[in-house]
Design a protein that fits this description.
Blueprint: E1 2-6, H1 10-19, E2 25-30, E3 42-45, H2 51-60, E4 63-66, H3 73-80, H4 89-95, H5 98-107, E5 115-118, H6 121-131, E6 135-139, E7 149-152, H7 157-165, E8 170-174, E9 180-188, E10 194-196, E11 200-205, E12 208-214, H8 219-236, E13 240-249, E14 252-259, H9 269-272, H10 277-285, E15 298-305, H11 311-315, E16 320-324, E17 334-342, H12 345-362
Parallel strand pairs: 1-2, 1-4, 2-3
Antiparallel strand pairs: 5-8, 6-7, 6-8, 9-10, 9-11, 9-13, 11-12, 12-15, 13-14, 15-17, 16-17
Helix pairs in contact: 1-10, 2-3, 3-4
The protein binds adenosine-5'-diphosphate and magnesium ion.
Magnesium ion binds next to loops.
Length: 363
């Protein structure tokens, strides 16, 4: 069985690494021949909207999936008609546009921050008046790791925000004064089986995920998150892994965004759950029985961004597992991560502190 993955980034690479023990083979489509997936599968070189290369990928494999969200829907529709393409193209399309995504959340009765479409300076002024300041102006499309966002902290920021981002369709959102950020990862197979991982608590800095702690135990938040996620899975007749990022405020979840794919906040599942998000994604799109999503002990995942400390120093931390993505170091680039998996929350926090100190030394 061969699986085609559009995008050969670290997520694609980890999907392939999870699939090899199951006897599966992987072919990627990516513009770069030395993308992280290159070491674990063949890469067909091409842009994500290159219909000829997409066709080549479709011909070479049995099922197609993706590891990036910015895959043009019109280009993949042609191959989705020829080979199973999962998660569904509709879910991919809706998650590419923050306005469509948040409108869907509200339609499914999933709470969000107040938001408004912004296509002119006037729209922005109106939105800031109605929703209030502080708020966040974001590009509707193509934003990731905090890119394409402008925090409006006072009225005088409005024009600067418009100048910085105004060339493309935008969304203005109320600023959520959250207590913490959490995410849920769920998986549904083509056979209709569903499972949910425990929540992960995520810490971002400058819009980039720095570390996650899981399982983050809160029966009430877990219940809310699963209810919300189930509605989205049903809405799309979904297959594969789906992630929702939430803000937590006064014990309630406020949805921020969804990702129709495996997610950085779920990397801990490789060592910290009975079955990883990567293996379950593959099982799901092939209609195989899903694996247990139960956590094992306590985990923390830390991203290495821009630089990686020396391997010997990382591996000295108790309970640590290291994953390199095989990328050239570059400012703000995710180069690898490590997961601490230990028996107690106290030991996890001690090891995480040790790792953060190490990372600060490297930065
Ligand atoms: N409306 C908001 N209120 C408060 N913080 C926000 C808001 N929107 C984004 N953020 C912060 O910026 C981070 C990145 O924003 P997000 O919408 O998730 O975009 P990205 O696609 O870049 O991950 C969030 O995880 C959160 O920390
Ligand atoms: Mg995000």
């Amino acid at each position: 069985m061969k699986i085609g993955i559009i995008g050969a980034g670290q997520l694609g690479r980890m999907l392939a690494l999870a699939g090899y023990p199951l006897g599966l083979q992987f072919v990627f489509l990516d513009q770069s021949e030395d993308a992280p997936g290159a070491q674990v599968g063949r890469i067909i070189r091409g842009a994500f909207d290159d219909t000829q290369r997409l066709g080549e990928l479709a011909d070479a494999v049995d099922v197609i999936t993706f590891d990036v969200e910015n895959v043009p829907v019109s280009a993949v529709e042609t191959i989705a008609a020829r080979k199973p393409f999962l998660p569904p193209v509709r879910a991919l399309g809706d998650s590419q546009d923050r306005l469509v995504e948040k409108t869907l959340f509200n339609k499914l009765k999933i709470p969000t921050a107040p938001f408004a479409a912004v296509d002119s300076l006037e729209d922005l002024q109106k939105a800031a008046k109605k929703i209030g300041i502080p708020g966040v102006l974001k590009t509707r499309r193509l934003g990731y790791d905090g890119r394409g966002q402008f925090f409006v902290r006072k009225s005088a920021d409005i024009e600067a925000a418009w100048k910085a981002l105004g060339a493309v369709p935008l969304i203005y959102e109320g600023f959520v004064d959250f207590r913490r950020e959490v995410s849920i990862i769920g998986v549904r197979s083509t056979a209709g089986e569903t499972r949910f991982y425990p929540l992960s608590a995520n810490t971002h800095e400058s819009g980039i995920l720095r570390y996650s702690i899981a399982p983050y135990r809160s029966a009430s938040l877990q219940r809310q998150a699963e209810t919300h996620l189930k509605r989205i899975l049903k809405h799309f007749d979904y297959a594969g892994v789906l992630t929702i990022e939430f803000f937590v405020k006064r014990g309630r979840l406020i949805a921020n965004e969804m990702a129709p794919r495996v997610h950085n906040s779920g990397h801990w599942t490789i060592e910290g759950a009975r079955t990883s998000q990567f293996e379950n994604h593959i099982r799901a799109i092939l209609g195989l029985p899903l694996g247990s999503t139960s956590p094992i002990g306590h985990s923390a995942m830390l991203n290495f961004i821009g630089q990686i400390p020396t391997l010997g120093n990382i591996l000295r931390v108790p309970g640590v597992h290291f994953h390199s993505y095989g990328k050239e170091p570059r400012h703000n680039r995710k180069l690898g991560h490590c997961t601490i998996n230990v028996a107690s929350a106290g030991a996890r926090d001690r090891a995480l502190r040790q790792l953060v100190r190490l990372k600060m030394g490297a930065d």
